[in-house]
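Exercise 7b. Backbone tokens:
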């Protein structure tokens, strides 16, 4: 290697042979946060592998925007190809660009406003069904809800509870396998018939069958649908850049995987914080009781739910669902004053960034009002739950609208109370979820509460 290169320094306490693997395995979230004190960009060793960790908004912005062409999506996304080869979140180069252009209009601001009615009519019966259901596993409930929203809005399909469960169990299994493979990069193990690999194969079959049925339904009755599946099917017949059936299956599966659990865990954390803070809960109830009426829920309604929206933002800050994101250099690249050799694995953690006391005052305090426009806002690039640049989340507006709507609808009807149990702690799997969160839905009795009309 060229001795003139200015490489990022290694973090201290690198142990021969294993590098920094021990603290990483012990507690990944704590370890990543501890790296902040070693500077804006540091290298760690995991066994023989070197990984560069970026902790500063400046380096991140440069990597994600002006220098983005020198980076591929990296280790985690390669492993996420388990969901389907070349789906948008994992596609590279011109293929990514073409597909993004094709699907982007379905996520445009105006289009998202058109989805509100369907989002509402999808989740309303699910929220009502909590009546008399006993303690809820909140993450699962939220997953079922957000998964149904993606399927209803984008695929015009609403699975029953059992099918919904089967799909979400498959997503969980595939996510777990992808993370395991990314953290323990011994590719040979991926092909052995281990119990974990067999589970992943079964889960992939369940996903493909469920998505295959959606596509078959659209093919059987093409005029009945106007959604993203029909958009992809029409593109499949185009002469210039036709999509094979396998591509369509991958894209639909990719959307389901990218769009369900992320929003679900945001909501789960939000209600966890709400149950710990009576004052925030009171403010939320007062807002929804004033804003929600028996009229259909519109973009105008959503814009009046300002406090609810701040709660969503604060959950995205403190509990950033995509807590770990990766890239890999495709060639030697200079980032700020540092050189990164070709093939270098990069990671960053929005979770770490969003809890940096240099960027946020009192960062461990859940304070939705820090997002009031009159309060000082974090520096540019310091709030990136959806990433930035050309690979920024395509569903960001969809997710925020959906989370705001679901929060308001739940709060208009229920108070969620935690079932006593072990302390809730964050777990860094593919998404950042609570270790366990069981809650009971208590009916609200306040005057003037509305469920909102459809
Ligand atoms: C709170 C919810 C969500 C969070 C926190 C989130 C976060 C992210 C992040 C961090 C990325 C990758 C950025 C990168 O690699 O630089 C991403 C990509 C993506 N997300 Fe989301 N997401 C959410 C919800 C959704 C929803 C609801 C959908 C669709 C229904 C969606 C669709 C996508 C797609 C298609 C990509 C790939 C975009 C591309 O590579 O061009 N996401 N998301």
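Sequence design result:
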């Amino acid at each position: 290697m060229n001795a003139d290169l200015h490489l990022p320094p290694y973090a201290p306490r690198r142990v021969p042979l294993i590098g920094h693997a021990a603290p990483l395995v012990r507690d990944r979230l704590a370890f990543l946060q501890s790296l902040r004190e070693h500077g804006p960009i540091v290298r760690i060793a995991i066994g023989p592998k070197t990984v560069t960790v970026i902790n500063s908004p400046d380096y991140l912005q440069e990597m994600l925007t002006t220098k983005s062409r020198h980076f591929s999506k990296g280790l985690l996304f390669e492993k996420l190809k388990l969901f389907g080869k070349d789906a948008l979140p994992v596609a590279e180069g011109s293929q990514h660009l073409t597909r993004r252009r094709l699907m982007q209009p379905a996520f445009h601001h105006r289009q998202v406003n058109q989805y509100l009615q369907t989002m509402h009519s999808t989740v309303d019966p699910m929220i009502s069904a909590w009546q008399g259901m006993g303690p809820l596993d909140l993450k699962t409930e939220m997953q079922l809800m957000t998964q149904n929203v993606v399927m209803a809005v984008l695929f015009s399909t609403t699975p029953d509870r059992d099918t919904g469960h089967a799909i979400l169990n498959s997503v969980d299994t595939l996510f777990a396998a992808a993370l395991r493979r990314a953290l323990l990069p011994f590719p040979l193990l991926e092909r052995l018939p281990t119990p974990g690999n067999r589970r992943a194969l079964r889960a992939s079959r369940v996903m493909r069958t469920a998505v295959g049925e959606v596509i078959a339904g659209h093919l059987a009755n093409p005029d009945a649908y106007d959604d993203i599946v029909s958009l992809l099917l029409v593109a499949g017949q185009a002469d210039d850049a036709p999509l094979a059936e396998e591509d369509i299956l991958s894209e639909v599966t990719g959307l389901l995987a990218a769009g369900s659990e992320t929003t679900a865990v945001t909501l789960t954390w939000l209600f966890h914080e709400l149950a710990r803070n009576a004052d925030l809960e009171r403010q939320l109830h007062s807002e929804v009781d004033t804003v929600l009426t028996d009229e259909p829920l519109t973009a105008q309604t959503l814009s009046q739910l300002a406090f609810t929206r701040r709660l969503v933002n604060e959950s995205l800050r403190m509990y950033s669902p995509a807590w770990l994101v990766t890239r890999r250099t495709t060639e030697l690249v200079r980032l700020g004053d540092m050189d990164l050799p070709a093939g270098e694995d990069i990671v960053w953690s929005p979770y770490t960034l969003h809890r940096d006391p240099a960027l946020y005052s009192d960062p461990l305090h859940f304070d939705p009002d820090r997002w009031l426009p009159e309060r000082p806002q974090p520096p540019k690039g310091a709030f990136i739950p959806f990433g930035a640049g050309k690979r920024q989340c395509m569903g960001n507006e969809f997710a925020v609208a959906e989370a705001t709507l679901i929060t308001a609808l739940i709060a208009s009807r229920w108070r969620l109370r935690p079932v006593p149990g072990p302390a809730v702690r964050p777990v860094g799997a593919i998404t950042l979820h609570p270790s366990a969160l069981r809650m009971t839905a208590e009916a609200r009795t306040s005057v003037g509460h509305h469920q909102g009309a459809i």
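Instructor comment: The two ends are 64 Å apart (CA to CA). The first strand starts at residue 41 and ends at 46.
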